[in-house]
Amino acid sequence: MRKRIIGWLVLVPLCAIIFIFALANRHMVAVNFNPLVSAAEGTAGYGVPLFLVIYAALFFGIALGGIAVWWTQGTHRRSEKRLKRENVQLKADLDAARRAPAREPDPALAAADDLA
Fold first, then answer.
1. Is 51 strand, coil or helix?
2. Which of 17, 42, 57, 95 has the fewest Cβ atoms within 10 angstroms?
C-alpha cells in the first residue's frame, strides 16, 4: 500500500509538469530533415509543436540508451545462461548419485580400517 501511495505522490506531479510543459510549448516550429538546406532559404520543413520535438528527442535518447545497455550486457546474459545450464546438470548428477544404490565397501579401505 505504501508503494502505491508513493507512486501516486510522484506520478501525479510528474504528469502535471509534463502537461504544463506541453501547454507552454504549443507553438509550431519548423523541423527539416535535410541538413544541406539552411532555414534561411525559405524551406519551411514540417510544422510541429515544440513539445513533440522535445518529447521525440527524449524518447529517442531513452531508446538508444536502453539498446546500448542491452547490447553491453550480452556477455553477462550468456555467462548466466551457461551457469544455469551447469547448475541444472550438477543437480541432476547429484540426484542420480543420491538415488544410486550404495556400493560395497572397498576391501582395501576395510583392511586399512582394521589396522587402526
1. helix
2. 42
Alpha carbons 106 and 116: distance in angstroms, whole number? 16
Task: Output the pLDDT for position 86.
Answer: 97
Q: Helix/strand/coil (H, E, C) string of 62-86?
A: HHHHHHHHHHHCHHHHHHHHHHHHH
Q: Which of 6-10, 52-56, 83-87, 107-111 has the lowest mean pLDDT?
A: 107-111
Confidence check: pLDDT of 67 > 80: yes
Q: Which residue has the higher pLDDT, 81 or 45?
A: 81
Residue 17 cell numbers, joined? 509538469
What is the model's pTM? Answer: 0.57
Question: Are the C-beta atoms of residues 45 and 33 closer than 8 Å to each other?
Answer: yes
Q: What 8-state DSSP symbol labels residue 42?
A: T
Cα→Cα distances 89→38, 53, 79, 83, Å? 64, 53, 15, 10
Give the burial class of 1: count Cβ atoms within 10 A of its Cβ; 0-12 exposed, 13-18 middle, 19 or more buried. Answer: exposed
